[in-house]
Design brief:
heterotetramer; A alpha/beta (686); B alpha+beta (481); C mainly alpha (314); D mainly alpha (294); A: 686 residues; 33% helix; 21% strand; B: alpha+beta; five-stranded mixed β-sheet; binds adenosine-5'-triphosphate; binds magnesium ion; nucleotide-binding (chain A); ATP binding (chain A); Oligopep_ABC_C (chain A)
């Protein structure tokens, strides 16, 4: 086992709000080792970033370290004078931030920014430039000598993150702390960046601390894991061990509540009740006790200490129950994987409730009077249909047109061509009558639970506005509102509260209740869970599934997370650059993808199953999605396709001919070489 | 100091508040007083001490027995700045221009009354009239400086300002400055001692006074308030010049409430003139209720102080007119210091039980109303021209002329004016007294006070004169007193 | 850069045209017939009519506008009906005074504004910060004329340090000229400088929150360099645009400041011209003020484009 | 609150919708800053309104005592006509306050409507934006001069100037709020539900647009007060002898040597007014930040 590169001991930090002090981190301890990736996981607000910043001594002004030490190269970083610390930052310990859009100075060239990292640590200008070019090449930027004088906005998100990584490795740092480096990126780009990190780690022999909330990412690239909850480390150990037998109920629940892209689909996702606590109002004792199915008296009173587990000294957990029982008791709930999904619920013959034919959505290009930009074709000739009680999943990378398509259906955008039929009625023109028809039939659940409820209105007002649209007389609305609350599993006593009193998951349920108020037959859910923490995500997914089954709703479920889509959908459509490239029954699409893009998406999606070789087998796409302003000719995917003209220049057909969406039976794909695409998927799984 | 012979040289720096108006050179305008007699020559000017005409371009003049024919002979060695010699034709031209309404000369009524103006020789002009020409003709001569007929059109925009005077008009930045240069060809070369004159136009009175601190040699027509700062300053001399301003309060006699004479008279008694002098003019000024200088022949102390502050009397008269609480709509010219005077007037009128409602009107609009003789029931004006003879003033002052805004036009008024204007010698004084008594009694235009202009100058600046209307003469002036 | 201009130009041209229409209409809206003004009170109807024809006032309004605009474009600013002098000449005569004031004030505004802004944006703690914030807030709320009067009361009257009114060209007598220029220029500059300072300060705080500043810290960049290369560099755009926007207000402030400090500049000329109904002059001054404001604004945007690669390359 | 009687609580909810909005502003004025600001403002307004009762001598009580130094009897001393400068300053408040109290709300309502008009017709909204651009192109005093030329100097011209000058400030704010609110998901949700445009406007957009507008009202009042002063100082505003803070300054500055209080007095009043409105704006702003940053 490699030596400890960095040791965090009993780290505690506090925030000062005026007079009040809030302890945000408590007794955080862990160590990072050379040549290994340490994953720090935990839900939003659990203190991951704060820990990273405390190590770097870059805490916000209102925060300070209250106790503990950070040992690095046989010294305590927290004791160093600022000037010494500055010489360590960027040269011995480097950091990579979450948002590649914001992490680069927009008015300086990327070269300048890499050089700066070198110059401030004593390198001269001309050598710095040569090194910067070398670094750009090292992180996989093509033609680094040309791109070095470009500005950040001329780079795509993934490339920017590569530049940030180049800065991090510029001075051969021994430790890189990456704070959610891929959260803002699409799965395809995420795979690129993660692979780069792993490559660099082994090539440069450095230690990496990777902060993430995605257990899949941890499983794929981390060697060790630290699980944080409420500002504390609740469990840590080697990834394989923790995943196989978590010793803290939180870890276990977290793992179970993740929808899986592979394996058996279950009817309901196991959930963690309640919501993540606010650090300023932590529950007494074990912070997790209100959500824990094993909670005992002691959990309410005493804070559990992180201690090695009997039998596996490399493992530590902070749980009274696990300690007392020498391991976590078996789950009282029935094992979810034992109950397979009840098959497809729809009779294939029921008439479609929603039909879209050859729909295109165009946004004007903008620009001044003298210079007009080309229009953006966000959706280009899409045809879909949805039957009652059926869930159609729609997946695709950011910007591919999912939202544009779904908003057009409810009349928030105007189609530029094509047809929309709702319950057999053509509503494309969205005249007064058609609009009323759509609104009675189709409702929408928005992505951002914080933005989709007016903070000025109480829940009662929000629901009764919707009920009023249904035409319900005032006196009946109260009862209806209570029924709706009940339907989404919320206490009717909350009706008089304002949105700010609710957590994200609860808000999302209110959003669903509002949509259901008009008793629609179709629900369009635009990434309804992507803003939520994993434990909450499961609650919302379950409610959607319940409602669908109870009310016979047709659901158009949009997401970029393939696992979530798979869990809920009967059929899946994959979208790329405004087009549907593959569509079919969920199991067919996931198991036998007929389009290389689908295969890549599937392969890129991290799976919460530790597998040291997974990273090597992944299909990783080169490049980024082209702009919808100037889509490529022929097949739109050809500029990134692993089997297209990039791999085999003789495939002119991909450049010249636009593939049609065709296929055997219901499963169709738009690829000139569907068989090869299928082979691709098999290859990546093997 | 100043005992040796004055040395030539140096540029005189003046500051004045109003801009030059070459277009209105024939009219009495404050902005022209400083330079009119430097660029132009008059035929004669009235001496400020004696009030008697002094020859300038005129060499001699004579009146016929009945005074109706007047012959003036002019110099033959005067040249315009263009080099052209002055002739009688130029004099005739100038007098004709006086009559042109656009030129706005206050002397226009006098000149229009002449039956003929003719050049009776290359250097002789003969004027005939139905009434005696002299002595009022000297008022005309003083204001009607002799213009160059060739370049007359250039006066309109100041592009060409040509006279026969001791200084040439060189450069004018409207609203900012005016520069004059010595005229080496002046007919009296020894009179031109200064190299040039620079006039700064400083509209802000305090700034003007400040300029006295080393930036200018003389400030003309400063406000008494600003003059205070020079009291007791040995380097600066304060002069009360001739050419006072008068402030008429006019009343429209044709419409209620001022169709009642008692009420009009009451106004005269209601106003505290001394307080106006003290508070608005810092004590500079005199409380005469006459429209002309108090040293005009025949003027008595009773006439000067006819209306004095007597609120009791005013109230009685108001009661007699049955006008208690009457509203007095006053139109006030928006030209300092008239609005300030109005504030005291308003206060005084309120004290005697009237209800004054004043409206301050911009100068341009007020002038229009004044020209049209339409300023409403009551109005506060500001007039200059003090120093001209009463006979001239009664037709020259807008407040008094036949088309006055008081609409005061009884036969007897014209008759008394005519009698004054044709009175010769000793007949003048009684005629003036009779007219004055009549005007005071009718109370259609109350003069509130006379204020002399206050000038400040540095000690070294000597040798200049003012004529009796208050225009500056720099012939003979020098900077080394 | 061309693209940027092409995008901005139409709105600038629109703005200028709209202003010219307003300026053109001003004398007409004010009532009063210019022909009557020229002809004088005693003129006959025929005289007035003849002048109308001469001035082109008998033509339809749009034709008059076209002619007026055409004349403007070739540099003929018209003739003052009151002084009978070409407006161009009148303006040239006063330009120097206002130019001195405007230049002094702009320099002060930029120096003080950016200086204060950087200071306020850099000092983040303690009494200095509170003091600066307070000072900026007070200056911000106090317009030039009030600032000017307070300066007069304090520097002129109480301490008798500076002359309170009048003017002398700096070129003629630098010492007196500058002593007379200090207070009016300060009065004009201070409120606008405070505005700029506040914007820069806010922008600097905002930039400080950006992740790239964190990245720079994580790179080990020393604080001074962070402020200069990262925070300031990204705040300059705001400074430039703020300055561009404020110049117009600054110039307009000259109207009152010139009156208060008795400077014979364009502002005072405009006020006098309004009083004497010399609308031909007002018209041009109004148009000029707006044209300058719009052009300076455009200039600042061009500068901004030069500073910000994202705009530059679009 | 326990919901026992459905209809009653529902009505209660609706009342709160209004009450909550106003209550927030009133609460803001209860904060220390707001309290001082509104207290000061009330004091000044009361003084102006009751000036005839407080100073029965009236605004024009003259005496022979010119330029008395400040004393207990005459806090700001006397002017050239022996009038009490303090009394005149208090009377002058009437003009300033009446101007902004009439003009700013008009501008606020008009401007807000113009700004929100984009919700009804995109073209109309654009057109008003262009109008605002033009107005904003005019520096405030230049605008004032133009309006004085057309209307003639006086209260009306000043009020018009303040309205025109403030219009774009409100219009821009309202439009900004409209544009940002229009894209908000809760507005989209209401649209998807079929809630009518006017209802969306009133229920969702307006309440959120109102916060910055209330703050701006205070700030525009300061602007208006200073515009009066500026135009009156150069003689294009209120015409003497009506005392306004500007006209007092117009005369006062001429006597600055003889009576500095003649200039300082009106300035003190101006600054007090500005301070009051500034504190109120600050307090409202804090309130806005508080509800925004939930
Ligand atoms: N500047 C700040 N001021 C006050 N509280 C803060 C600040 N930054 C973070 N916090 C609080 O500290 C806690 C931990 O924050 P931290 O950013 O470390 O969470 P995290 O685990 O990184 O979450 P996420 O996944 O959302 O990034 C949170 O409850 C947050 O509210
Ligand atoms: N109102 C709009 N005006 C102009 N372009 C738009 C507009 N809305 C979306 N677009 C563009 O249309 C394309 C598709 O956007 P859309 O929001 O539909 O993507 P998406 O698949 O929902 O992405 P995400 O996963 O990020 O939500 C993008 O390039 C986007 O920039
Ligand atoms: Mg974080
Ligand atoms: Mg989307």
């Amino acid at each position: 086992m490699a030596a400890n590169l960095l040791e965090v001991r009993n780290l505690g930090t506090t925030f000062r709000f005026g007079q009040a002090e809030v302890q945000a981190l408590h007794e955080v301890s862990f160590e990072a080792r050379t040549g290994r990736v340490l994953g720090i996981v935990g839900e939003s607000g659990s203190g991951k970033s704060l820990t990273a910043r405390a190590i770097m001594r870059m805490l916000p002004e209102t925060a300070s370290v209250s106790n503990g030490e950070v040992l690095f190269e046989s010294g305590n970083l927290l004791d160093l004078p600022e000037a010494r610390m500055r010489s360590i930052r960027g040269s011995k310990i480097a950091m990579v931030f979450q948002d590649p859009q914001a992490a680069l100075n927009p008015v300086k060239t990327v070269g300048w920014q890499i050089e700066e990292a070198l110059v401030v640590h004593g390198m001269n200008k001309s050598r710095a430039r040569a090194r910067a070019i070398e670094l750009l090449g090292q992180v996989g930027i093509p033609e680094p000598d040309k791109r070095i004088d470009d500005f950040p906005h001329q780079f795509s998100g993934g490339m920017r993150q590569r530049v940030v990584i180049a800065i991090a490795i510029a001075n051969s740092a021994k430790l890189i702390i990456a704070d959610e480096p891929t959260t803002a990126l699409d799965v395809t780009i995420q795979a690129q960046v993660l692979r780069l990190l792993v490559d660099l780690k082994s090539r440069l022999d450095i230690g990496v601390i990777l902060i993430t909330h995605d257990m899949g990412v941890v499983a794929e690239i981390c060697d060790d894991i630290v699980v944080m909850y409420g500002g504390r480390v609740v469990e840590r150990g080697a990834v394989a061990g923790v995943f196989a037998a978590p010793q803290h109920p939180y870890t276990r629940n977290l793992l179970r509540s993740m929808p899986r892209i592979e394996g058996v689909r279950t009817a309901r996702l196991p959930t963690i009740p309640g919501s993540t606590p606010d650090l300023s109002r932590l529950p007494s004792g074990c912070a997790f006790h209100p959500r824990c199915q094993f909670a005992e008296d002691i959990c309410l009173r005493e804070v559990p200490v992180l201690l090695p587990m009997a039998g596996s000294p490399e493992r530590e957990a902070a749980c009274h129950v696990a300690r007392q029982n020498a391991g976590l008791p078996p789950d009282p709930d029935p094992t979810p994987s034992s109950e397979p999904l009840a098959g497809v619920r729809t009779s294939g013959s029921a008439p479609a409730i929603l039909e879209i034919e050859d729909l295109s959505v165009t946004f004007p290009g903008g620009g001044g009077w003298l210079r007009r930009e080309k229009p953006i074709v966000a959706v280009d000739g899409v045809s879909l249909s949805l039957r009652p009680g059926e869930t159609l999943g729609l997946v695709g990378e950011s910007g591919c047109g999912k939202t544009s398509l779904s908003r057009t259906i409810v009349g928030l955008n105007r189609p530029s061509s094509g047809y929309i039929r709702v319950a057999g009625e053509d509503v494309t023109d969205f005249g007064a009558e058609a609009a009323a028809h759509v609104r009675r039939t189709v409702q929408y659940v928005f992505q951002d639970p914080y933005a989709s409820l007016n903070p000025r209105l109480s829940i009662r007002q929000i629901l009764s506005e919707a009920l009023e649209q249904r035409g319900l007389p005032g006196r009946q609305r109260e009862a209806a509102a209570r029924a709706l609350m009940d339907m989404v599993g919320l206490d009717a006593a909350y009706l008089d509260r304002y949105p700010k009193a609710f957590s994200g998951g609860q808000r999302q349920r209110i959003g669903i209740a509002r949509a259901l108020a008009v008793e629609p037959r179709v629900l369009i859910c635009d990434e309804p869970v992507s803003a939520l923490d994993v434990s909450i995500q499961a609650q919302v997914i379950n409610i959607l599934a319940d409602l669908r089954d109870r009310l016979g709703l047709g659901i158009l479920f949009i997401a970029h997370d393939l696992s979530v889509v798979r869990h809920l959908s009967d059929r899946v459509a994959v979208m790329y650059l405004g087009r549907i490239v593959e569509i079919g029954p969920a199991s067919d699409v996931y198991e036998h993808p007929l389009h290389p893009y689908t295969a890549v998406l599937l392969s890129s999606t991290p799976k919460p199953v530790p597998d040291p070789s997974a990273m090597q087998r992944k299909l990783v796409l080169g490049g980024d999605m082209p702009s919808p302003r100037n889509p490529p000719s022929g097949c739109r995917f050809r500029t990134r396709c692993p089997i297209g003209p990039l791999a085999d220049p003789s495939r002119r057909i991909c450049i010249e001919k636009d593939p049609l969406l065709v296929g055997p039976g219901e499963h169709k794909s738009a690829c000139h070489f569907p068989d090869e695409a299928a082979g691709l998927a098999v290859q990546s799984k093997a | 100091y100043g005992q040796g012979a004055p040395q030539p040289g140096g540029t005189l720096r003046l500051a004045q508040g109003a801009d030059a108006q070459p277009k209105n050179i024939l009219a009495g305008r404050a902005g022209n007083n400083t330079w009119r007699h430097q660029v132009f020559d008059a035929l004669t000017v009235l001496d400020s001490e004696t009030g008697q005409p002094r020859p300038v371009l005129a060499t001699e003049w004579e009146s016929s027995e009945d005074g109706r024919t007047f012959v003036v002979r002019i110099r033959n060695d005067a040249r315009f700045h263009t080099g052209r010699p002055l002739t009688a034709e130029d004099v005739v031209f100038t007098l004709e221009q006086v009559m042109v309404p656009e030129n706005a000369s206050q002397m226009a009524p006098l000149v229009r009354a002449y039956t003929s103006i003719e050049a009776t020789g290359t250097h002789e002009v003969t004027i005939t009239s139905d009434t005696p020409v002299a002595p009022r003709v000297f008022d005309v001569f003083q204001l009607a400086v002799i213009l160059d007929m060739d370049t007359f059109s250039g006066l309109a925009d100041g592009s060409q300002v040509v006279g026969t005077g001791p200084f040439k008009w060189v450069d004018w930045v409207p609203g900012a400055s005016l520069r004059l240069e010595r005229n080496d060809d002046y007919w009296a070369p020894d009179q031109v001692l200064l190299d040039g004159v620079e006039i700064s136009i400083i509209t802000d009175s305090t700034a003007m006074a400040n300029a006295m601190r080393g930036r200018v040699d003389m400030v003309l027509a400063m406000t008494p308030r600003d003059a205070i700062m020079f009291r007791g300053n040995p380097g600066v001399e304060l002069i009360e010049g001739p050419g006072a301003q008068i402030f008429p309060l006019g009343l429209n006699v044709t419409a209620p409430p001022f169709d009642k004479r008692e009420l009009r008279q009451a106004i005269g008694y209601a106003i505290d003139r001394q307080r106006i002098i003290d508070q608005v003019f810092n004590g500079v000024g005199n409380a005469s209720c006459l429209w002309w200088r108090s040293n005009e022949p025949g003027t008595t102390e009773e006439m000067v102080t006819h209306y004095h502050y007597d609120p009791e009397r005013a109230r009685e008269l108001i009661a007699a007119a049955g006008a208690e609480g009457a509203q007095v709509d006053l139109t006030v010219i928006g030209l300092a210091p008239v609005p300030a005077i109005y504030e005291i007037v308003q206060n005084n009128l309120r004290e005697v039980g009237l209800n004054p409602m004043g409206q301050v009107v911009e100068t341009a609009a007020f002038d229009q109303g004044q020209t049209a003789g339409d300023l409403g029931p009551a109005f506060q004006q500001i007039h200059g021209l003090q120093g001209f003879s009463a006979a001239t003033l009664v037709d020259a002052l807008p407040a008094l002329r036949d088309t006055n805004p008081s609409k005061f036009t009884p036969e007897r008024y014209r008759e008394l004016k005519d009698a004054l204007q044709s009175a010769q010698g000793d007949a003048y004084a009684p005629a003036l007294v009779e007219l004055g008594q009549f005007m005071l009694d009718e109370a259609f235009s109350h003069i509130l006070l006379h204020t002399p202009p206050l000038h400040a100058k540095v000690q070294q600046f000597q040798g200049f004169t003012f004529n009796n209307v208050g225009f500056l003469h720099l012939a003979g002036a020098h900077l080394n007193g | 850069m061309f693209g940027f201009l092409a995008r901005r130009l139409p709105s600038v041209v629109f703005m200028l045209l709209a202003t010219s229409v307003i300026a053109f209409l001003l004398p007409r809206l004010a009532g009063g017939d210019p022909a009557q003004t020229i002809a004088g009170a005693d003129a006959t109807a025929e005289q007035v009519a003849a002048i109308r024809v001469e001035l082109g006032l008998d033509q339809p309004v749009y034709a008059q506008y076209g002619r007026w605009l055409g004349d403007l474009l070739v540099g003929d600013l018209g003739t003052s009906l009151i002084t009978s002098r070409p407006v161009g000449q009148l303006i040239m005569a006063r330009l120097g005074s206002t130019l001195e004031l405007a230049i002094a004030a702009t320099v002060l505004m930029v120096v003080l504004g950016i200086g204060l802004g950087i200071l306020a944006g850099s000092i983040r703690k303690g009494a200095g910060r509170a003091g600066l914030d307070g000072a900026v807030s007070v200056l911000l709320a106090t317009p030039p004329h009030v600032t000017g009067l307070i300066l007069i009361l304090v520097l002129g009257i109480t301490f008798n340090l500076l002359p309170i009114s009048g003017e002398v060209s700096v070129l003629r007598d630098p010492l007196v000229g500058i002593s007379l220029l200090i207070m009016p220029a300060l009065a004009l500059a201070l409120p606008q400088a405070a505005m700029i300072a506040r914007l820069i300060q806010a922008r600097m705080y905002q930039v400080r929150q950006e992740e790239f500043v964190d990245l720079a810290i994580a790179k080990g960049v020393p604080p001074r360099r962070i402020v200069l290369s990262h925070i300031l560099r990204n705040s300059m755009g705001t400074a430039v645009v703020a300055t561009g926007i404020r110049v117009g207000e600054l110039l307009a402030g000259a109207v009152v400041i010139e009156a208060i400090f008795a400077r014979n500049g364009l502002g005072l000329m405009a006020v006098d011209a309004v009083s004497s109904r010399d609308y031909q002059v007002v018209q041009i001054v109004v148009l000029g003020a707006v044209v300058i404001a719009v052009l300076v604004h455009l200039l600042s945007e061009i500068l901004l484009a030069a500073l910000d690669p994202r705009i530059r390359l679009q | 609150m326990t919901a026992t009687n459905p209809t009653e609580t529902h009505a209660g909810g609706r009342r709160r919708l209004m009450g909550e909005g106003l209550g927030r502003y009133i609460a803001a004025l209860g904060q220390p800053k707001g309290l001082i600001g509104s207290g000061l403002l009330v004091l000044l307004v009361l003084a102006a309104v009751f000036a005839p009762i407080l100073f029965p001598g009236g605004v024009d009580q003259q005496s022979r005592d010119s330029f008395l130094l400040p004393s207990l009897l005459h806090p700001f001393g006397t002017d050239e006509l022996g009038r009490d400068i303090f009394v005149r300053c208090v009377y002058a408040l009437q003009v300033s306050i009446s101007l902004v109290i009439v003009a700013v709300p008009i501008a606020a309502v008009l401007g807000t409507l113009m700004g929100l008009s984009g919700a009804i017709s995109g073209l109309l909204g654009e057109a008003f934006q262009r109008v605002f651009d033009i107005i904003l192109g005019f520096p405030s005093l230049v605008l004032g001069i133009c309006i004085v030329i057309v209307i003639g100097p006086g209260w009306l011209a000043l009020a018009t100037t303040i309205v025109v000058f403030s219009l774009p400030q409100f219009g821009r704010l309202a439009r900004g709020a409209l544009l940002s609110e229009q894209g908000r998901e809760y507005v989209l949700a209401a649209r998807v539900l079929g809630v009518s445009r006017p209802k969306i406007m009133i229920r969702h957009i307006l309440p959120n647009a109102l916060d910055p507008i209330f703050v701006q009202v205070s700030l525009s009042m300061i602007g208006g007060i200073f515009i009066e002063a500026a135009l009156s100082i150069v003689g294009l505003g209120i015409q003497p002898p009506t005392p306004s803070l500007g006209t007092l300054l117009n005369v006062g500055i001429r006597y600055v040597y003889a009576q500095p209080m003649y200039t300082a007095g009106p300035i003190i009043m101006l600054l007090l007014l500005a301070l009051a409105f500034n504190l109120i704006a600050d307090a409202l702003n804090a309130q806005v930040l508080k509800t925004r940053g939930e």
